[in-house]
Amino acid sequence: MRIGVHSGPVFLGRIGLKGEYTAMGDTVNIASRLYSSAPLGSVIVSHDSYGHVRNSFVFESRDPIEVKGVTDPLKTYVAVSANPKRFQQINTGILGIETEMIGRDEELQVLISALGRTMLESTPGMITIIGEAGIGKSRLLHEFRKRVERENDDMIFFNARCTPEMKNTPCSVFRDILKYRMNVRENDSTEVAWKKFEAEMGEYLTKDEVLLACHYAGFDFSSYEPVRRLMGTQALAATGRSCLVNYFRGTAADNRTMIYLEDLHWADNTSLELIEHLAGNITDDRLLILSLSRPPLLETHPHWGEGLPHRFIELKPLSEKYSGDLTREILKKVDSLPVDITNLVVSGSGGNPFYMEELIAMLMEDGVIVAGEDKWTVKPGSMIRKTVPSTLTGVLQARLDSLPDEEKQMLQKASVIGRLFWDLALENLYKKTTDIDSMLSLLQSRDLIHGNDNSTFTLAREYLFKHAILRDVTYDTVLLELRKTYHRKIAEWIVNNSGDRVFELSGLIAEHYDRGCDRKNALEWLLKSGRSAYSTSSFAEALSAFQRALSIVPEGNENLSQLHLDTGNTLEKLAKYDEACEQLERALEIAEEEDEQDIAAKSLLTLTWIAILRGQIDHAKELSLMAFERAEKSGSKSILAKATMRMADFDNEKNYDNVLSYYRKSYRIYKEIGDINGTAITRLNMGNVAMSFDQLQDAEEYYTESLKTYESLGNQWGIANCLGNLGNVSLIGNDYNKSRELHKRSIAISRKIGDREGEVICNLNLGHDTKGLGSPEESKKHYCRALKTAASLGLLPLALSALHELSKIMLDNRELENAALALLFIKENEEVFLVEGESTDIDGLLSNVLDKLPDRAKGEIKASAESLELVEVANRILQKIGTEAF
Predict the structure, then answer these.
(1) CB atoms within 10 A of CB 387
(2) What is the pTM of this model?
(3) Residue 589: its pLDDT value, please?
């Protein structure tokens, strides 16, 4: 079987002796020619037909074909599969009456110009449309998309719509993008999902890279070897993130690419950081990221888009004139529209288009406006409400109250599922057989919900509330006890209908159980959600899950000590050390009471690390010894290996062989238990020890062995680390060309995987390299870059190192006040800057510069050094000497 499709005018009539009724003309002839050229079992369409259905199917372009009677060869396409659409064609009026967009022509032109500039100049762009709920953001996007997709049939589109449930799910925006782009259902098996991803992403990534990218984006591929071998290491997140970025980079390099993101104020932190990373790091490619958001985005992320090719478009309420024009446009089927109706809508809506639509819908439901088939009428002498609700919420509540009970109850049940819901999930909330389809159709006809063309669950039809506010208002009308029951049932439905990938939805399941006051199940799924987020270095989202779990876990629960440990470890990763210590000490206390030696040892190891970071060396030594004792009792060889390595930091004799002996023990343990990542990190640390004792040959051997292991694992973080350290070996040996080459390779990988701390370290090292090569200006640029990034990330020790190097440059250039500020700030934080027993030239440099300054200037600079935060000091220094570095 084969099918050929062409669109155009045809002549219909009876022909021949038998008078058969048929279609004739060029359109039919072309369709016939397409049919003849179609491969067996395929559907081939002309360019004219393609324009009508390109958003509904995935097509592959074919070579043009010659058609008798047609001058130019015809461009043709083969349909490959149905194309899932995340963004539906929105209703642009009431009761199916299409309306023109009013009052947003200027903003639309800004979008079109920005797209043209991005595509013409091959430079990425990022636009965020900000506006209150109902102000017309989605309508503006709809009109832009119509224009763009009509005129750019070769453009690649990615879409995501954020929902409140996504805020604490790491990388949920990109999970949404990939899920809908590749048509992956939530109940597809892991193997089916993998095949869909590989088919689409394999053009730009290897099979291993596809798995790592998708796992980072929130799809559970932990059972696959490329993911499994990096589990438990920070390289899992770094490498997965890098692969995901490379997929979008490859797409943008080959195609004009658009990413549409709706309701970005509900996006998770990991996704927001990745969006900014794409905008800042995919250069020289045709990529435009267009986001819609309410103002709360700027409350949580006040620096959104700073330093990127980004601009805001603020949508304000429509003017009184445009509000009147829109009212008349919506009610264009009414002959001689009464002025009092127009005035009522305009004065009541405050220029909010959605408010205006809902207000008009309310008037129709009140019988004030009657919709006929061809014309609408205003009922003569009809009573308009004496009081019109003064808020959008009030109008929506009035509309809900006017619904028949069965329809209102269905809408309420749907609201518990979320803005996005499914008919099969609704069925789970009814005790008896109910004609759900008929009621859903009625709700669609009232323009309260929309049906989606594709569903995220196989066999289930998917629906969407017309607006997020409508869903929220409806949800608030559900009785509390009913709400709890519905949430528990929906959680059970998701668990029972998500197949072997149910773990991916742990955050959503936990949310429903939590709202359903099922604390036992909520705790179980919150722990799964938090640990999954932690494994991909999404620490903010992990902390949210763990803290919510702590708020509901009962005293004496078997998970309590582990939960405090997980929370403490997450807080440490977020540099919230006081809070981390509080959680870790509580975990230790419970573990000691319950004789949980493994948890006690892990708690003590993290406490040891925090003490080292704070310069509390004696306390760290005490904690390390305690951790080692518990590790020995725990029976866990993995914990013992870590505790043994940590003991090396506090060897009393400070003897090279003694210190190295601890690492040799750890290495043997890791080798015994088959922990390849453990052997790699041990060899890396042995190289660090050799460096600290000036054993450069040993250091090079250890780093090289570690590098080979990390390369076999595909661990990009480890590779970058080893290359950087090998560069340091060459640097100490004064081989500046070799050290610079190795540090360049290291920083390239760090940038690729988004390791910002690694970038800072590499820039410091490149500063040393270029200084050794006699390039002071190049050296200064690297130190400035290191300072800027370190300050923005709060990496105080690294920022102090950059300030130290820059202070010497400023002294040489006689920039005395800035040099004094840098040195005094270092002095204020000396316990962080110096490791115990170290000494530097800080005091000599400081004495030198202060001797040359007047007393008044000294006093002012000392006050600044004591009062200013790191970012403020960095900005002041960079404004004076570092602008050319960027």
Answers:
(1) 7
(2) 0.80
(3) 97
